[in-house]
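2024-03-11 09:14:02 INFO queue: dequeued item TRAF-type domain-containing protein, len=360
2024-03-11 09:14:02 INFO validating residues
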Amino acid sequence: MLVITMENLECTVGEDGLNFQCNLCDSEVVHSMAEILLRGLATASVDSTTGDIFKSPSAVAVGMKSELAEYLIQRSMTLVREAVDGGEDHSEQLITASTMPMEFLSDLIDGFVASKRNLLSHVSGFLSSENRLNKIKDFIQKMDMENFWAQDGREATAGTILKSIDMKCIMHCPERFDTQDKLAEHRTLCRFRTVNCKNDGCLASFSANHIEKHDSVCAFKVLPCEQLCQQHVMRCEMDRHCASVCPMKLINCPFYQVGCESAFPQCVLDKHCSEHLQIHLMCILELTTRQDTFVNDMNQRLHLLEKAQSLNELSGALDVRTLTLTTKEQEAKIKKLEQDLKVQETKLKKLESEFKSGKV
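2024-03-11 09:14:37 INFO prediction written
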């Protein structure tokens, strides 16, 4: 359980005479909270005007923005004040607020949005519809394009909320000073000051306390080759380097296809070939011998096939010749029968003629 005492509030109260407070915040957290604020405003504006033909989200957004910001700041401060004064037990909320400010802010916004939904939103099933989500997304883009709630303004609101709930001063600087000069000197070294990435080509900026975190993932960070060659390569180019031009890239021996199955860094290719010249020659000789044997075998197979084909063709030729002779014999027989038939027809006509003339 998080115990709230006045000692916990030193980061926001300070000592007498120390009128200049640093108040720098973790820029990454503030930026994320600012994005949540914009979505919260869009959601409240859309849900409060659902089905209202006389109002649009744009018409209510101006008043809704002021109301939302005031509600969030007052609610977060009240939560801390009640805990310090020994009022209601908000320990779980304060733990969430101190360790997960984005989740805490989202919860507060959900409560605000719920209070702004009109009757039609509740009864129409609109809250779970894809149409609602699209309207919210479109209105976010519209506000962003028109710079309706500027990034600086949202981050200022987010920073105010963060400083009020960051009880352990994990995400903002609580330091106070008695002069402006001392404050200015401190801010040049403050862990929450904004810094730019020093890697060439990277345009990222962030709080100084995230230097190591960013450096561990920065695409422009120059690193020693992962395959331990002598070169240094940007993180975003490492995969391409290792897979293509790196001298330590593993490759197969050029004589792999003839039997040498060695794999080695491409920088030692010449050395490998010179040291294994005899082995490579033996591999080629064995391959040549195998190929000669194979060729001879194929030639024999080809010869047998050609011979078989010739026999088949001869057999076919004999069959055709026999068929031709048989056909000719049948044609000769038919022709003889035709001739005999003509002779009989002639004789029959002659008898008919004699019978008519009375000679028979």
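2024-03-11 09:14:37 INFO annotate: The radius of gyration is 49 Å.
2024-03-11 09:14:38 INFO item closed
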